[in-house]
Amino acid sequence: MQYDIFSVGDNIADYYPEEKRVYAGGGAYNTAVIAKRLGAKAAYYGVFGTDKNAKFLYETLKKEKVAYPVNDIRKGRNALSIVRRQGSEAVIEAVDKGVYKNLKINKNVLEIIKNSKIVHSNIYSYFENYLPKLHYKTKLSFDFSYLRNREYIEDIIPRVDIAFFSESKSQEDPEAFLDWLSQFELEAVILTLGEDGVLMQLGEEIIREKSLPVEAVDTLGAGDALTAAFLTSLAKNEKDYHQALAEGLKTAAKYCKIRGALGVSESREEEQIIHKNVHQKK
Protein backbone atom coordinates (compact mmCIF):
# COMPACT_ATOMS: atom_id res chain seq x y z
CA MET A 1 0.00 0.00 0.00
CA GLN A 2 1.21 3.49 -0.79
CA TYR A 3 0.69 6.16 1.85
CA ASP A 4 0.34 9.89 1.35
CA ILE A 5 2.20 10.78 4.54
CA PHE A 6 4.45 8.46 6.53
CA SER A 7 5.55 10.11 9.76
CA VAL A 8 8.46 8.60 11.67
CA GLY A 9 9.62 9.36 15.18
CA ASP A 10 8.46 10.60 18.55
CA ASN A 11 5.26 9.82 20.44
CA ILE A 12 4.95 11.44 23.86
CA ALA A 13 2.44 11.57 26.70
CA ASP A 14 2.18 15.28 27.59
CA TYR A 15 1.28 15.54 31.28
CA TYR A 16 -0.44 18.69 32.57
CA PRO A 17 -0.09 18.61 36.40
CA GLU A 18 -2.78 21.25 36.99
CA GLU A 19 -5.33 19.05 35.24
CA LYS A 20 -3.88 15.67 36.26
CA ARG A 21 -4.26 14.53 32.65
CA VAL A 22 -1.98 13.24 29.92
CA TYR A 23 -2.55 14.37 26.36
CA ALA A 24 -1.48 12.46 23.26
CA GLY A 25 1.49 14.19 21.67
CA GLY A 26 4.88 14.06 19.97
CA GLY A 27 5.75 15.87 16.76
CA ALA A 28 5.84 12.87 14.41
CA TYR A 29 2.81 11.28 16.08
CA ASN A 30 0.79 14.51 15.91
CA THR A 31 1.63 14.98 12.24
CA ALA A 32 0.38 11.50 11.36
CA VAL A 33 -2.85 11.84 13.33
CA ILE A 34 -3.75 15.28 11.99
CA ALA A 35 -2.90 14.27 8.42
CA LYS A 36 -5.29 11.32 8.78
CA ARG A 37 -8.00 13.62 10.17
CA LEU A 38 -7.52 15.80 7.08
CA GLY A 39 -8.14 12.88 4.76
CA ALA A 40 -4.63 11.67 3.99
CA LYS A 41 -3.62 8.04 3.88
CA ALA A 42 -1.38 8.46 6.89
CA ALA A 43 0.99 6.02 8.56
CA TYR A 44 3.21 6.23 11.61
CA TYR A 45 6.30 4.40 12.78
CA GLY A 46 7.77 4.93 16.22
CA VAL A 47 8.66 3.05 19.37
CA PHE A 48 6.05 2.55 22.10
CA GLY A 49 6.78 1.40 25.63
CA THR A 50 4.71 -0.96 27.78
CA ASP A 51 3.40 1.35 30.53
CA LYS A 52 0.01 2.99 30.95
CA ASN A 53 0.96 6.03 28.87
CA ALA A 54 2.16 3.81 26.02
CA LYS A 55 -1.15 1.95 25.97
CA PHE A 56 -3.04 5.26 25.86
CA LEU A 57 -1.00 6.52 22.91
CA TYR A 58 -1.14 3.21 21.05
CA GLU A 59 -4.90 2.91 21.49
CA THR A 60 -5.38 6.53 20.39
CA LEU A 61 -3.44 5.83 17.20
CA LYS A 62 -5.75 2.90 16.46
CA LYS A 63 -8.89 4.92 17.20
CA GLU A 64 -7.69 7.63 14.84
CA LYS A 65 -7.22 4.91 12.18
CA VAL A 66 -3.65 5.88 11.45
CA ALA A 67 -1.81 2.96 9.84
CA TYR A 68 0.89 1.39 12.01
CA PRO A 69 2.19 -1.24 9.60
CA VAL A 70 5.21 -2.21 11.70
CA ASN A 71 4.60 -2.73 15.41
CA ASP A 72 7.55 -1.67 17.56
CA ILE A 73 6.69 -2.08 21.23
CA ARG A 74 9.58 -2.38 23.66
CA LYS A 75 9.53 -3.12 27.36
CA GLY A 76 9.93 0.03 29.41
CA ARG A 77 8.61 3.56 29.90
CA ASN A 78 7.04 5.50 27.10
CA ALA A 79 8.26 9.03 26.44
CA LEU A 80 6.75 11.58 28.83
CA SER A 81 6.82 15.35 29.15
CA ILE A 82 5.69 17.69 31.91
CA VAL A 83 3.79 20.69 30.53
CA ARG A 84 2.51 23.77 32.35
CA ARG A 85 0.33 26.51 31.00
CA GLN A 86 1.25 30.17 30.90
CA GLY A 87 -1.95 31.64 29.56
CA SER A 88 -2.52 29.96 26.20
CA GLU A 89 1.14 29.00 25.86
CA ALA A 90 2.19 25.52 26.87
CA VAL A 91 5.64 25.49 28.46
CA ILE A 92 7.51 22.17 28.47
CA GLU A 93 9.35 21.78 31.76
CA ALA A 94 10.87 18.32 31.43
CA VAL A 95 11.10 15.44 28.98
CA ASP A 96 11.91 11.77 29.50
CA LYS A 97 12.40 10.05 26.13
CA GLY A 98 11.82 6.58 27.53
CA VAL A 99 12.18 3.76 25.01
CA TYR A 100 11.81 5.74 21.81
CA LYS A 101 15.42 6.95 22.00
CA ASN A 102 16.29 3.39 20.91
CA LEU A 103 14.83 3.83 17.41
CA LYS A 104 16.37 1.28 15.07
CA ILE A 105 14.99 0.63 11.60
CA ASN A 106 15.93 -2.35 9.47
CA LYS A 107 15.95 -2.61 5.69
CA ASN A 108 12.51 -4.25 5.52
CA VAL A 109 10.90 -1.45 7.51
CA LEU A 110 12.58 1.18 5.33
CA GLU A 111 11.08 -0.53 2.28
CA ILE A 112 7.62 -0.06 3.79
CA ILE A 113 8.28 3.55 4.79
CA LYS A 114 9.63 4.64 1.42
CA ASN A 115 6.45 3.51 -0.34
CA SER A 116 4.92 6.90 0.42
CA LYS A 117 4.48 10.21 -1.35
CA ILE A 118 6.05 12.05 1.58
CA VAL A 119 8.07 10.81 4.56
CA HIS A 120 8.26 13.20 7.51
CA SER A 121 10.42 13.26 10.63
CA ASN A 122 12.10 15.73 13.00
CA ILE A 123 15.16 16.49 15.11
CA TYR A 124 13.73 14.64 18.14
CA SER A 125 13.29 11.30 16.38
CA TYR A 126 16.79 9.80 15.85
CA PHE A 127 15.97 9.39 12.16
CA GLU A 128 18.88 11.33 10.67
CA ASN A 129 21.02 8.31 9.76
CA TYR A 130 18.18 6.83 7.69
CA LEU A 131 17.62 9.88 5.50
CA PRO A 132 20.37 9.00 2.98
CA LYS A 133 18.75 5.58 2.47
CA LEU A 134 15.47 7.25 1.45
CA HIS A 135 16.84 10.26 -0.43
CA TYR A 136 15.64 10.35 -4.05
CA LYS A 137 13.29 7.41 -3.36
CA THR A 138 10.50 9.53 -1.86
CA LYS A 139 9.92 13.18 -0.92
CA LEU A 140 11.50 13.87 2.48
CA SER A 141 10.19 16.44 4.95
CA PHE A 142 12.07 17.35 8.13
CA ASP A 143 11.22 19.61 11.05
CA PHE A 144 14.28 21.33 12.54
CA SER A 145 12.14 23.07 15.18
CA TYR A 146 14.07 25.87 16.99
CA LEU A 147 17.48 24.38 16.20
CA ARG A 148 20.07 26.73 14.68
CA ASN A 149 23.20 24.60 14.93
CA ARG A 150 24.58 25.28 11.46
CA GLU A 151 26.93 22.30 11.45
CA TYR A 152 23.96 19.99 12.08
CA ILE A 153 21.79 21.78 9.52
CA GLU A 154 24.52 21.64 6.88
CA ASP A 155 24.84 17.90 7.46
CA ILE A 156 21.12 17.05 7.36
CA ILE A 157 19.43 19.52 5.05
CA PRO A 158 20.99 18.36 1.75
CA ARG A 159 19.21 15.05 2.30
CA VAL A 160 15.68 16.49 2.52
CA ASP A 161 13.27 18.22 0.13
CA ILE A 162 11.10 20.28 2.50
CA ALA A 163 12.34 21.83 5.74
CA PHE A 164 10.34 23.32 8.59
CA PHE A 165 11.79 25.67 11.19
CA SER A 166 10.22 27.32 14.22
CA GLU A 167 10.98 30.86 15.34
CA SER A 168 14.40 31.14 16.95
CA LYS A 169 14.54 31.73 20.69
CA SER A 170 17.44 34.14 20.21
CA GLN A 171 17.74 37.30 18.14
CA GLU A 172 17.55 36.50 14.46
CA ASP A 173 16.89 38.11 11.12
CA PRO A 174 14.44 35.55 9.65
CA GLU A 175 14.96 36.62 6.05
CA ALA A 176 18.75 36.50 6.43
CA PHE A 177 18.41 32.99 7.84
CA LEU A 178 16.30 31.94 4.85
CA ASP A 179 18.84 33.55 2.54
CA TRP A 180 21.55 31.37 4.08
CA LEU A 181 19.33 28.29 3.59
CA SER A 182 18.78 29.14 -0.08
CA GLN A 183 22.20 27.71 -0.96
CA PHE A 184 20.83 24.21 -0.31
CA GLU A 185 18.17 24.55 -3.04
CA LEU A 186 15.30 22.80 -1.28
CA GLU A 187 11.84 22.63 -2.80
CA ALA A 188 10.49 24.69 0.08
CA VAL A 189 11.54 26.03 3.48
CA ILE A 190 8.86 27.08 5.97
CA LEU A 191 9.75 29.25 8.96
CA THR A 192 6.94 29.79 11.47
CA LEU A 193 7.00 33.01 13.49
CA GLY A 194 4.18 32.49 15.98
CA GLU A 195 1.74 35.38 16.06
CA ASP A 196 3.83 37.13 13.37
CA GLY A 197 2.85 34.54 10.79
CA VAL A 198 5.08 32.45 8.57
CA LEU A 199 7.74 32.82 5.90
CA MET A 200 8.06 30.38 3.02
CA GLN A 201 11.01 30.27 0.68
CA LEU A 202 10.50 28.92 -2.83
CA GLY A 203 13.69 29.23 -4.83
CA GLU A 204 14.71 32.88 -4.58
CA GLU A 205 11.21 34.00 -3.63
CA ILE A 206 10.18 34.58 0.00
CA ILE A 207 6.46 34.61 0.76
CA ARG A 208 5.17 36.10 4.02
CA GLU A 209 1.71 35.23 5.32
CA LYS A 210 -0.04 36.38 8.48
CA SER A 211 -1.32 34.01 11.15
CA LEU A 212 -5.09 33.77 11.23
CA PRO A 213 -6.68 35.57 14.20
CA VAL A 214 -7.70 33.13 16.91
CA GLU A 215 -8.46 33.11 20.64
CA ALA A 216 -5.90 30.47 21.52
CA VAL A 217 -6.60 27.93 24.24
CA ASP A 218 -3.36 25.96 23.93
CA THR A 219 -0.59 26.52 21.37
CA LEU A 220 1.08 23.13 21.93
CA GLY A 221 1.20 21.27 18.63
CA ALA A 222 0.13 24.19 16.44
CA GLY A 223 3.31 23.81 14.40
CA ASP A 224 2.61 20.11 13.90
CA ALA A 225 -0.88 20.99 12.70
CA LEU A 226 0.57 23.40 10.14
CA THR A 227 3.05 20.76 9.00
CA ALA A 228 0.39 18.04 8.69
CA ALA A 229 -1.96 20.23 6.68
CA PHE A 230 0.84 21.55 4.47
CA LEU A 231 2.06 18.04 3.62
CA THR A 232 -1.47 16.67 3.15
CA SER A 233 -2.26 19.45 0.69
CA LEU A 234 1.03 18.89 -1.10
CA ALA A 235 0.37 15.16 -1.38
CA LYS A 236 -2.81 16.02 -3.29
CA ASN A 237 -1.42 18.91 -5.36
CA GLU A 238 2.29 18.29 -5.70
CA LYS A 239 3.47 21.77 -6.72
CA ASP A 240 0.85 24.05 -5.15
CA TYR A 241 2.89 25.35 -2.22
CA HIS A 242 0.79 28.47 -1.83
CA GLN A 243 -2.36 26.41 -1.28
CA ALA A 244 -0.43 24.11 1.05
CA LEU A 245 0.64 27.07 3.18
CA ALA A 246 -2.91 28.43 3.31
CA GLU A 247 -4.18 25.05 4.50
CA GLY A 248 -1.39 24.90 7.06
CA LEU A 249 -2.25 28.28 8.57
CA LYS A 250 -5.95 27.44 8.69
CA THR A 251 -5.33 24.14 10.45
CA ALA A 252 -2.81 25.63 12.89
CA ALA A 253 -5.41 28.22 13.95
CA LYS A 254 -7.99 25.47 14.45
CA TYR A 255 -5.70 23.42 16.67
CA CYS A 256 -4.84 26.43 18.83
CA LYS A 257 -8.44 26.23 20.05
CA ILE A 258 -8.18 22.77 21.58
CA ARG A 259 -6.39 21.52 24.70
CA GLY A 260 -3.27 19.51 24.09
CA ALA A 261 -1.82 18.93 20.66
CA LEU A 262 -4.70 16.72 19.52
CA GLY A 263 -7.46 17.28 22.06
CA VAL A 264 -7.21 13.66 23.25
CA SER A 265 -6.48 13.03 26.92
CA GLU A 266 -6.76 10.61 29.81
CA SER A 267 -6.87 11.15 33.57
CA ARG A 268 -3.77 10.55 35.69
CA GLU A 269 -4.25 10.86 39.43
CA GLU A 270 -0.86 9.29 40.13
CA GLU A 271 2.27 11.42 39.91
CA GLN A 272 4.05 11.24 36.56
CA ILE A 273 7.76 10.74 37.16
CA ILE A 274 10.56 11.97 34.92
CA HIS A 275 13.43 9.51 35.36
CA LYS A 276 15.90 11.25 33.09
CA ASN A 277 15.20 14.81 32.03
CA VAL A 278 16.71 15.59 28.62
CA HIS A 279 14.86 18.87 28.07
CA GLN A 280 17.02 21.93 27.66
CA LYS A 281 15.16 25.11 28.52
CA LYS A 282 15.49 27.83 25.94
Automatic annotation (TrEMBL):
Name the record gives this protein: Fructoselysine 6-kinase
- Carbohydrate kinase PfkB domain segment(s): 20-261
What keywords were assigned to this record? Answer: Kinase, Transferase
Gene source species: Halanaerobium saccharolyticum
Similarity comment text for this entry: Belongs to the carbohydrate kinase PfkB family.
Instruction: Give GO MF terms, alphabetically.
Output: fructokinase activity
- What processes does the entry annotate via GO biological process terms? fructose metabolic process
User: By its UniProt entry, which Pfam families does this protein fall under?
Assistant: PfkB
